[in-house]
């Protein structure tokens, strides 16, 4: 397997599970703060999962089993199979981009089911690449992994020897954070674990949640919490952050959780899930420039598809789903000048919808895999309009 990474592996970090540090008065307000509820899964809390084994060439403390159950796996295979088997039933001659490789769960299934398929796996997280690399090693040179943000798809294709347009048969996006990222408290994604205020998906990137919280002015913080977290008390929380950091810089997730509890009025704390959920989501989106990255990646992925090629995107929160929905609506719209009674030849839509609107996970899947509860899956196919 070829593994292309833009930089070196991250340092080994100790696997820690810090004791919950909230003060007793805070816990009296929020006795459930120690626990995880199903509706909070998308915002950075996962039940603890076992770690097992170690990974060659990867930090030794990474869980190889990941505890990650790929979301809507059967449906993804069903939706992409027609595009991947156009040349041959075993996928020979077809290329699939897994733009969010994660632990490699989806990729492993595609490579197993289609023994001729070539897969290009992207992830911005070097730990994920190391874990997935190990998992997919047995598929040899059918797999190429690239350390990049998914909006770097054009460069990734070039690096793997493919043209940036019209060269792949399928693209899969399974957005958001992975179980592996959530399961490592020291990365700071979870408000249920005390950890440094980090939240970087790429441990080699420079911007952290601590830097945002300690250096952005109140207006900028309010804007982040409002736009990316749809937090009603954005301005109040931002004000409390600014006041608190004047005493000493914020360093830990537990400090931020306490500030959020103090800032949100008591009656409002009891509704809408964990009070820290929206703020943590907002910071994670800002730290990782998630929406900018997705807005640039979707058009690049569409351009990469050959006629008959398909793209499947799974989004877990409304801001990302809106970006996908808008891009897919534009791609499946007629390009004929408005007002013409007929479609001009060659000006029809470039893509057709494969799913009707957004598909959701059914109750069985949500039971088996609570992470699938918020998912919205959309798929479209490139038309053959030569
Ligand atoms: C939900 S996980 C994918 C899980 C994967 N489908 C599996 O079955 O194991 C999402 C992955 O996407 C990665 N990711 C998120 N945003 C990204 C971006 N802008 N560019 C590249 N990778 C990204 C994360 O680092 C994470 O590993």
Please explain how this structure is put together.
With 386 residues, this protein is α/β, with parallel strands linked by helices. The chain folds into two domains: 73-179 and 290-382, Rossmann fold (3-Layer(aba) Sandwich); 206-287, Putative methyltransferase TM0872, insert domain (DNA polymerase, domain 1, Orthogonal Bundle). It is 36% helix and 12% strand. The protein has helices at residues 24-29, 73-84, 105-113, 126-135, 153-159, 179-182, 209-215, 218-229, 234-245, 253-263, 266-269, 277-287, 290-304, 318-331, 363-368; strands at residues 2-4, 95-98, 118-123, 143-147, 168-174, 305-315, 351-353, 376-382. Helix 8 (218-229) packs across helix 12 and helix 13 runs parallel beside helix 14 (318-331). S-adenosylmethionine binds next to helix 3 and strand 3.
């Amino acid at each position: 397997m070829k593994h292309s990474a833009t930089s070196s592996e991250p340092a080994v970090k100790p696997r820690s599970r810090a004791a919950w540090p909230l003060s007793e008065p805070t816990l009296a307000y929020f006795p459930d703060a120690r626990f995880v509820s199903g509706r909070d899964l998308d915002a950075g809390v996962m039940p603890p999962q076992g770690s097992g084994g170690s990974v060659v060439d990867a930090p030794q403390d990474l869980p190889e089993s990941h505890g990650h159950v790929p979301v809507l796996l059967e449906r993804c295979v069903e939706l992409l199979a027609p595009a991947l088997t156009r040349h041959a039933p075993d996928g020979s001659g077809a290329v699939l981009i897994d733009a969010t490789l994660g632990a490699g769960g989806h990729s492993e299934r595609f490579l197993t089911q289609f023994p001729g398929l070539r897969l290009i796996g992207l992830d911005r997280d070097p730990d994920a690449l190391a874990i997935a690399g190990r998992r997919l090693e047995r598929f040899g040179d059918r797999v190429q992994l690239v350390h990049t943000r998914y909006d770097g798809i054009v460069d990734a294709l070039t690096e793997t020897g493919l043209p940036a347009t019209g060269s792949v048969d399928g693209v899969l996006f399974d957005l958001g954070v992975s179980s592996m990222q959530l399961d490592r408290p020291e990365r700071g994604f979870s408000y249920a674990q005390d950890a440094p205020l980090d939240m970087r998906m790429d441990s080699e990137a420079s911007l952290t949640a601590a830097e945002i919280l300690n250096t952005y002015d109140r207006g900028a913080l309010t804007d982040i919490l409002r736009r990316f977290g749809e937090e009603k008390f954005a301005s109040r929380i931002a004000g409390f952050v600014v006041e608190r950091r004047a005493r000493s810089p914020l360093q830990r997730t537990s400090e931020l959780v306490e500030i959020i509890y103090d800032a949100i009025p008591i009656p409002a704390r009891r509704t809408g899930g964990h009070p820290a959920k929206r703020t943590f989501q907002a910071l994670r989106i800002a730290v990782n420039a998630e929406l900018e990255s997705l807005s640039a990646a979707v058009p690049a992925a569409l351009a990469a598809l050959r006629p008959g090629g398909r793209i499947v995107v799974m989004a877990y929160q409304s801001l990302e789903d809106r970006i996908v929905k808008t891009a897919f609506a534009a791609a499946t719209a007629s390009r004929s000048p408005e007002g013409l009674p007929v479609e001009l030849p060659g000006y029809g839509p470039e893509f057709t919808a494969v799913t009707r609107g957004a598909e959701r996970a059914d109750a069985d899947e949500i039971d088996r895999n609570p992470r699938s509860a918020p998912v919205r899956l959309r798929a479209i196919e490139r038309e053959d309009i030569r």
